[in-house]
Amino acid sequence: MGxxxxxFVLSAFAILGxxxxxxxxxxxxxxxxxxxxxFCIAGLYLTLNATFIAVVQVLVYAGAIMVLFLxxxxxxxxxxxxxxxxxxxxxxxxxxxxVIVLAQFTYVLASGMGMLPxxxxxxxxxxxxxxxxxxxxLFTRYALLLEVIGLLLLAATIGAVVLARKREVL
Amino acid sequence: MEIATSWYLGxxxxxxxxxxxxxxxxxxxxxxxMSVELMLNAVNLTLxxxxxxxxxxxxxxxVFFVMSVAAAEAAVGLxxxxxxxxxxxxxxxxxxxxxxx
Lengths: 170, 101
Hints:
The complex is a heterodimer of chains A (170) and B (101).
Chain A: H1 2-23, H2 27-47, H3 51-76, H4 89-111, H5 122-128, H6 131-140, H7 143-164
Chain B: H1 5-25, H2 29-54, H3 58-88
């Protein structure tokens, strides 16, 4: 019963964080709400016994990526300007599109209720979420992909520096 | 007592929808990028939930790669935002119509 209570508290705070990010006018407070959401998702990974992914979530998302966002927001010195768009035809269309996507998700989830796989025992889930198992997979079977991801990150770093560089003519 | 997998999938769907609404509704391009991160997180949550339910490590390996790509995307996206801000002195998506026919 305790773990279910934990799930509900964490998911309530995750949704609260997402809503706060969506509705707050100041970009800095948007970013801080998103940090709350990311921490709650890390907690949810822990309830799934995915310990390695939970730690990586806190390090990479709540740490690195959000620091990058906050850094750029403060670098650009934004004012807490207009939050949401003015009402228009496009806004109504966007709302309808969102509702359609939500309906599709609900339908898929509801129709798939009986088709979900049977859960494996907890011990197997703990084993498959441990850093040892993941590292074995990552450095043997997925070693090439790991190298490719390293190249991608290098390319992204160079690209970001080139894009953000100051130049006279654009 | 275990937590049903469908609850995680439902939470992932709700978070994904909130991310979609953020991309569609918000004008600040930095908040739009944050909404994209939120959508990626929702998908990661469903991947981990299904992978752990089936005792398969492939889901978590995929989440690892998605996180790397999300980091690259955030770096390049924010660099583009800085470049656009330098030209237009604005981060409003309505002002970014460089490619508009």
